[in-house]
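FIELD: query
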Amino acid sequence: MLQFPSKRATSAALAATAGAAALSFALVSGTSATAAAPPSVSGSPEGAFTRIADFYGSYIDAVYDGDGRTADQLRAFYLSEPLRRELTQWEAANHADGVLRAQNVPLKWKVTSVDSGMGKTNAAITLTWSGTTTTVHVQADLATRKITSIRD
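FIELD: result
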């Protein structure tokens, strides 16, 4: 008389086979079977909010690397002329970087859209220092995509 495995044994064998297949695929494809999706960043050159995020990411990288020339070029490209003049005065009075509102460079940054209207878009920039965070409020013009205001 032939004996067939029980349904429970068959289910366990199928589950084990499926798990092994998934693990094999993960090893072959270079991913982890339990890994989260890789981070991604997207944007558009047409969006003022994206420009704010692009500026802060690039500016912090340049300042962190001690590349003053690139930091100055980024300011010239992304910031309106009146804001650049305002920052020069703020920096002279406060002896700090007016874009970051600090004397040093944050370890992390996050740009969050606040709202848009009346031809402007607003964002909150959260800067993380060793153990603390500060927030800078930024406004950009929707038509020119230039940053026009940076406030504490």
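FIELD: remark
The chain has a mean pLDDT of 85.
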